[in-house]
Amino acid sequence: VKVSGYFITLKGRIWQEELKEAHNGIKILGGEVIKQADFSLASLDDQRCNIYIKKIKNTPNKYPRPFGKIKKKPL
Q1: What DSSP designation does 51 have?
Q2: pLDDT tens digits along 20-34
Q3: Which of 8, 48, 49, 73 could make a disulfide contact with 38, Cβ separation 3.0–4.6 Å?
């Protein structure tokens, strides 16, 4: 995502836990959560959430990392 661009992700019912786990990574990679829009799917009786992340600064040059490093040491 370019600086000033947006990343919008659709999450399921445990979105709050996932967002909490991802908070540090979002910050490191130059993003900022600006909005969460939760809703339910009537036909499935299930909760969903769109999370809007704005890119506020460039990603550090050491990213992206090789897959092995990502698995061994997540953000």
Answers
A1: E
A2: 999 999 999 999 999
A3: 49
